[in-house]
Amino acid sequence: MARRWGPYTNMKSVLAQEPFVIDHAEGVYVYDEKGHRYLDAHAGLWLVNVGYGRQEIIEAMHTQAQKLAWFSSFGGIANRPSLDLAEYLVERLSPDGMVAVFFSNDGSEAVETALKLSRQYWKIRGRGTKTKFIGREKSYHGVTLGALSVAGISANRTAFEPLLADVRHTAAPDVFHCPHHPGDSFCTGGCIRELERLIGFENPDTIAAMILEPIQAAGGVIIPPPDYVRQVADLCRRHDILLIADEVVTGFGRLGDWTGSRHYGIRPDMMTFAKGITSGYMPLGATAVTREIWETFRQVPGDGPEFRHGNTYSGHPVACAAALANLAIIEREQLWLQAREIGPYLRKKLQEAENTWPQYLSEAGAEGLLGRIRIQGGTDAVEPGYWGLQVQAEMRRRGVIVRVAGDVVTFSPPLIVTADHIDVIISTLVDSVAAIF
Ligand code: PLP
């Protein structure tokens, strides 16, 4: 254990405890090495959309690994699952306007790919001054330096500054903490005016792209007012700024549609995917692009690569086989309908929990199967995030796994979750609050 340096982990406190080792999983449940069962209200890390232990994904991976576990896909070489997956994705993403897909290994790389595509796209089109990126406060886009530069969770950035210089940030549409119209969940005016002012101040001729999660997940499930995403897309379109929809969490059913972009009625220029593309059975990232971007790159003269970028494991055959089997399940079981049907129930139950303990719970909300609630302690004499961690630990002791963003508890269960599971999750939340305060 001492030698395993965990991601985003306080190793001092981890090493002081017995390790929490997950041993196996089935459906919506994971089991630790001692045999304790936990309802996973977070789908691993926002991603096990089809649930655990799906034999048909495991068999697809096994069959592919036996046939061809790996070969390079550089320079015109391909494997069949990556071709099939690209075709499948383009077909399913055609309502979003996507015509081609570039594969990588995870969400960070999918974002990095989109950022680099944006810069080169404008160079090819003779507008090389368009180099800046716009990100948003409280956003999460990954760990690589480009993805981190456009992201906006300050605590993740500080240790690594200076990050990319050509990045500007605009406000998150956080209705509960809005500097413009606090508490008004139908207002978008302030954020949109701020973004418009930023674009004007920076000069659209210097801006390559804006990146946006349809719902900011890791920042605390920040659900935007209804028209906000469409208004951002309109602004980008009007100012010739590429819009990258980061669908790493919202893709493949979580908001009740194939994509979060479709849920909010926008057609971005690029989309980034990971997580739910394989439901975590294998690592895989994907960046999808419109015809305009695809055709622009085909104009690059010469015999060399048009896009001088690629990962060794781009289009890994076993990962692509896992994705195909996973997406077939989502499609056959129409799991996005689950998010439409169970999502409102999650929202209602979170609201009821808030009504039960209004002195300790606030800011309840859910969109599809992404939910949140804020914990507020009886005293301010603790660090921000303290009460969130207390509730998370108590819920785990009681058999439910959630994540926290500071003092906001977030919910992102597998899409196979039922109303009975939601009842258990929310009653465990309420009981945990009762036990702590
Ligand atoms: N984009 C979003 C919206 C994410 O939530 C994440 C991870 O949580 C990433 C990108 C980065 O993905 P990965 O951790 O697979 O690199």
UniProtKB/TrEMBL annotation:
Belongs to the class-III pyridoxal-phosphate-dependent aminotransferase family. InterPro entries: Aminotrans_3, Aminotrans_3_PPA_site, PyrdxlP-dep_Trfase, PyrdxlP-dep_Trfase_major, PyrdxlP-dep_Trfase_small. The keyword Hydrolase does not apply. The keyword Signal does not apply. Its EC number is 2.6.1.62. CDD domains: OAT_like. Pfam families: Aminotran_3. This is Adenosylmethionine--8-amino-7-oxononanoate transaminase. PROSITE patterns: AA_TRANSFER_CLASS_3. PANTHER family: ADENOSYLMETHIONINE-8-AMINO-7-OXONONANOATE AMINOTRANSFERASE. The lineage of its organism: Bacteria, Bacillati, Bacillota, Clostridia, Eubacteriales. It comes from Sulfobacillus acidophilus (strain ATCC 700253 / DSM 10332 / NAL). GO terms for molecular function: adenosylmethionine-8-amino-7-oxononanoate transaminase activity; pyridoxal phosphate binding. GO terms for biological process: biotin biosynthetic process. Keywords: Aminotransferase, Pyridoxal phosphate, Transferase.
